[in-house]
Specification:
It contains 5 helices and 15 strands. It has 266 residues and is an alpha+beta fold. It has 2 domains: 1-50, no CATH class; 52-263, no CATH class. A 9-stranded mixed sheet has the order 7-8-9-10-13-14-15-12-11. A 4-stranded antiparallel sheet has the order 1-6-5-4, with no helix packed on it. The chain is elongated and about 85 Å long. The relative contact order is 0.09.
Length: 266
């Protein structure tokens, strides 16, 4: 396992040449790996079974983690009822867990993590597979803007934009199609994070474009899971109201014609 932090004399520290420490999760010995090629990281001195959910860090992981305070990074989250524990990439002061996912992951593990963490969001690396961004770019025209809510869209067929393995997630999933490198001005839709919210609005998926700055600010202060539920409920109510108003207008428009026909004996 590659990790950003280990305990050195009881203090959480990043790797430095020559340092030795212990794993914050399993308390086994770790060595600082500070070579010229790979990102500096801590590694267990011997092969062992640590947290099975942990994903070795990439530059993409490290860049995202560094947007948040050190004291929120690589936090052990424990289920008080069962004693089960796992290392969260980010756990904010408000208890929101942010998991950065680069490698492939099975739907069963996605579900297990969501059940375990409960109040969490995913940030998925949309640059890992070559087909992910082209699929989103091609399906982007299917996003239908919601006039009353800037930056939000309805999508009838989410599989046309997003990987199938994430479509049934029970928490918000943010797709990062830019990664850590600048994007061409011709591909501006790569710059925002694109969030696929859980649940459906009148049979449509709810999607939002969020800047990185907005995401970091919201993740630091708000509960995304509650926000998603509020948005879904409000939009569902708004759409139902709009349909009721439209039906009422059609009825009013048709009523005079009906009266005129009756008065002429038709």
């Amino acid at each position: 396992m590659k990790m950003k932090f280990a305990l050195v004399n009881g203090q959480k520290m990043e790797p430095q040449p020559g340092l030795k420490g212990t794993c914050t999760y399993c308390q086994r010995n770790m060595t600082a790996k500070c070579g010229p090629v790979r990102i500096w990281h801590w590694a267990h001195k011997s092969k062992c079974s640590c947290d099975p959910w942990w994903e070795n860090e990439t530059d993409w992981h490290r860049t995202w983690k560094n947007h948040f305070p050190t004291e929120w990074q690589e936090i052990i989250h424990i289920d008080s009822a069962t004693g089960e524990k796992h290392i969260a990439d980010i756990k904010t002061a408000n208890g929101l867990v942010v998991e950065f996912q680069h490698s492939a992951i099975q739907p069963t593990e996605i579900q297990s993590r969501e059940v375990f963490y409960k109040n969490m969001v995913w940030v998925v690396d949309g640059t890992r597979l070559k087909k992910d961004y082209p699929r989103f770019s091609k399906g982007f025209s299917c996003l239908r803007p919601i006039p009353t809510v800037q930056g939000f869209f309805l999508l009838a067929f989410p599989e046309e934009c997003f990987p199938k393995s994430w479509l049934k997630s029970s928490v918000p999933v943010y797709f990062d199609f830019q990664g850590i490198y600048p994007v061409d001005q011709q591909e501006r839709i790569r710059s925002p994070l694109w969030c696929l919210f859980p649940g459906r609005v009148e049979g449509h998926a709810l999607v939002a474009g969020v800047s990185r700055k907005q995401f970091i600010e919201l993740a630091s202060t708000d509960s995304h899971l509650l926000l998603a539920r509020d948005i879904l409920n409000n939009l569902s109510q708004l759409i139902r109201l709009q349909r009721q108003n439209a039906a009422a207008q059609q009825t009013r428009a048709a009523y005079p014609r009906y009266v005129r026909r009756r008065s002429h004996g038709f």
